Amino acid sequence: MVEIVKPVQMQRVVSDAKRRGKSIGVVPTMGYLHDGHVALMREARRENDIVVLTIFVNPTQFGPNEDFEKYPRDIDRDKAIAEKENVDFIFNPSVDDIYPEGFSTYIDVEGVSELLEGEWRPGHFRGVATVVMKLFQITLPDRAYFGQKDAQQLMVIRKMVRDLHMPVSIKDVPTVREPDGLAMSSRNAYLSTDERKDAVILFTSLRDARDQIAQGERSRDVIVNGIRNAINTIRNARIDYVEIVDPETFKSVEKLEDDREYCIALAVRIGKTRLIDNIFINNK
After folding, report:
1. Percent of the chain with pLDDT over 70
2. 48 & 137 share domain
């Protein structure tokens, strides 16, 4: 495994590989790897000749009062995990290399990026789309791998790729969960022992909603209020949003139909830690 820090060197390496007919799979991350990232790396390894793992804590997707400075980082641990998963290259650039002095070009994906997370974190998806575009330009992937846990991010990236005719296939991998159902996230490291126990309510409320739908419930209000009521039993939980949306547009729906797919998405603060999760409902 080789670590590369300079964009021009990374471009040179993958350009040479593509000239030799090799396929490139890239796994974009902000590091502090967990089993969710491992699932992405394994899928990339299965489908490509060369796997590139990017590790970059992207400042432009953090708001002014968010956790950029304290976001967990452990590059040595990340390298050990990547090597175990047979990653070929780690691209680990500096902020100055990704956003050089005078940088002023950004990507705005209208529509899907303006809802839910876009409302609560203005500018977040602008930063996500911009850095992903840059990483694609640098690593030149045939395929790129993202987790379904960040479902709205996944749709933003799909739309960007589709709208700009980018020659990369976006592959999604199901959410990886702890044994008790909590979705794996680097931010779980912020949770205290008690908060960690409380955080399970995100998944259990989604699971119960899925069961409710399977039993015939179709009212958005009934389903959403059931999730809210369950989460509100946790004293230190604060809901940002709970919504049932079309998984392509992330627009809210009022009533579920039997021939469509839906995503129930939520964002909840457990203590000071903001967690997101979702579940897909297939009524087809």
Report:
1. 99
2. yes
